[in-house]
Amino acid sequence: MIYCGIDWAERHHDVALVDDTGQLLAKRRITDDAAGYKMLLDLLAEYGDTQDAPIPVAIETSRGLLVAVLRAGVRKIFAVNPMAAARYRDRHGTSRKKSDPGDALVLANILRTDMPMHRPLPADSDLARAVAVLARAQQDATWNRQQISNQVRSLLREYYPAALDAFAPWQNGLCRPAARELLKVAPTPARAAALTRSQIRSALKRAGRSRGIDAETDRIREVFQAQYAHQPQLVEDALGKQMLALLRQLEAACLAADELADAVEETFPQHPDADVILSFPGLGIQLAARVLAEIGDDRQRFADARGLKAYAGSAPVTRASGKKHHVARRMVKNDRLNHAGYLWAFSAITASEGAGTHYRRRRDRGDWHAAAQRHLFNRMIGQLYQCLKTSELFDEQRAFPSDLAVAA
């Protein structure tokens, strides 16, 4: 059997082929373009790569055009963590020398000796991978929007507390179009105090508000004209210019998050697993898309529900040595799926009577909030694994029979 290792770089890639005995059969340096990819495929075909017996490939990344070309067909691609590859490098020498061709050889030997210990990239459908791209991008855009919003809020606290008081009654205040329009018109407290009712009303209308404008106008004007401490005028004007620069970034982040959310809502319902995932309490389209993005639709990816729970970080880790026995939460996990699970369990507590009873029972047993919520997520993601496997919708009577009996 032949094994291939590829040391990935930005402009070129080093390729190494070894056989069962570890003998180096071939090595090449290919460019990161279509000609280089064709050279790689020709090299693999020269050494017996076919659709029926493809040569497995180890590489230190799971993304990019090179990986997309290699994934065509049934070839197994193993994305080896660079830290793990560095540990394997120490097995072949103590001098700590490093080279790109040498790393390619190390990756090929990883498959030769320990291929069963590494997981190949899942064989997800193109639609599932498209959902993953959009869901992760929307999640990143949401985090970026919140980060910039926190920066704006921190800056307003330094010189413009009236704006924070005016937007406090609004949920997610600084990210709302009305807040951004008002800050554009009045970037400093001095200009805010001089705003007329018609100016505030026009800003609210430009933001899309159509009801309760007069009452909201009076409330905002009253807050802007209240007594607050002020920075010196020159400092205040400079801070206002800084705030306007941050505001442009916030507007771009809000627009990106909204557009990606619309793309997710358009793409995710087309997936065959969408109905099953959405049947679970606490999951809307955006959160359900994030769950599908991380677990994929390859039914062979996880041998059982325990594997999925460990991957999500909901299953605890047991460390036992002699008389010592310690159970702790899992630190090595898929962080995106774990974050989605936190939001999922938090919403399910109120969306499902059985889930809420299960959570309260764990709290009564002495669990902290996070531990009880993690336990609920652990149970529900196991149920999701079974429902996806059998293509059945969520049934609360079967999912929480004892909890519903206690609630009744």
Account of the protein in words:
By secondary structure, this protein is of the alpha/beta class. The chain folds into 3 domains: 119 residues, 2-Layer Sandwich (Nucleotidyltransferase, domain 5), CATH 3.30.420; 137 residues; 133 residues, no CATH class. 59% of the residues lie in helices and 9% in strands. It is built from 19 helices and 7 strands. The strands form 2 sheets. The protein has a 5-stranded mixed beta sheet with strand order 3-2-1-4-5. Strands 6-7 form a two-stranded antiparallel sheet. A hairpin with a 4-residue loop joins strand 1 and strand 2. Helix 13 packs antiparallel against helix 15 and helix 16 crosses helix 19. The longest helix is centred in the middle third of the chain and has 35 residues. The termini are far apart. The model has no long low-confidence stretch (mean pLDDT 91).
